[in-house]
């Protein structure tokens, strides 16, 4: 699933120069930024052909298979109501990130 963005987790659209930097909610990496992009900022503006100036932040790891799997784990982590299941998911996520980034999921909410 190469090249897949997880909206709200590893890419962000902001007003121009509103944020200096943003970190990926999946892996904690500092996002790459394209400033002053002119284009749609959501589905409605894309359908309407509207273009707005904005900054586009994206994780440098978004196109890696492990990052896609990590994003899915983060989504599950946030969706589950079970504390014990959340602990297991967090353990899997931390192992995946450690294998691929030598970091822990410090940016992921518990």
The whole-angstrom Rg is 15 Å
Mean model confidence by pLDDT: 87
Largest sheet: 3 strands, antiparallel
Topology order in helix (H) and strand (E) letters = EEHEHH
Please state the structural category. alpha+beta
Q: Which of globular, elongated, flat, extended, rod-shaped describes the shape?
A: elongated
Query: Are there runs of 5+ residues with pLDDT below 50, and where?
Result: 104-110
Distance between the termini: 26 Å
Strand content: 15-25%
Spatial strand arrangement across the major sheet: 1-3-2
Number of helices: 3
Helix content: 25-40%
Total strands: 3
Characterization of this structure:
- The structure is a single chain.
- The protein is α+β, with helices and mostly antiparallel strands and 110 residues long.
- 35% of the residues lie in helices and 17% in strands.
- A three-stranded antiparallel beta sheet has the order 1-3-2, with no helix packed on it.
- The longest helix has 19 residues, at 83-101.
- The chain is elongated and about 45 Å long.
- The two termini are 26 Å apart.
- 23% of the residues are buried.
- Residues 104-110 have low confidence and may be disordered.
